[in-house]
């Protein structure tokens, strides 16, 4: 059950990123979708969705790999010294 929840947590941002790519592609071909009054606004929304989804998935993978000690030393958390 826990793995299914983790999969859903990753699938939703992935789908939003894919929607963002679709909106950016449609902007390049001049296809305007109904919630947007301008092509530039559609492209900006698509870029934000794509960047947000990619950042979420990348952060999730980085967090998981840090817990398992599978990252290079430059990506490891710095230890705080008192």
TrEMBL record:
InterPro entries: Uncharacterised_YqzF
Pfam families given in the database record: DUF2627 (PF11118)
Keywords: Membrane, Transmembrane, Transmembrane helix
UniProt superkingdom: Bacteria
TM region(s), chain numbering: 41-62
Name of the protein in its database record: DUF2627 domain-containing protein
Organismal lineage: Bacteria, Bacillati, Bacillota, Bacilli, Bacillales
């Amino acid at each position: 059950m826990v793995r299914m929840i983790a999969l859903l947590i990753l699938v939703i941002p992935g789908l939003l990123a894919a929607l963002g790519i679709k909106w950016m592609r449609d902007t390049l071909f001049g296809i305007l979708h109904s919630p947007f009054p301008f092509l530039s606004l559609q492209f900006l929304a698509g870029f934000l969705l794509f960047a947000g989804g990619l950042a979420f998935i990348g952060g999730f993978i980085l967090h998981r790999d840090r817990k398992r000690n599978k990252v290079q030393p430059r990506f490891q958390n710095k230890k705080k010294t008192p």
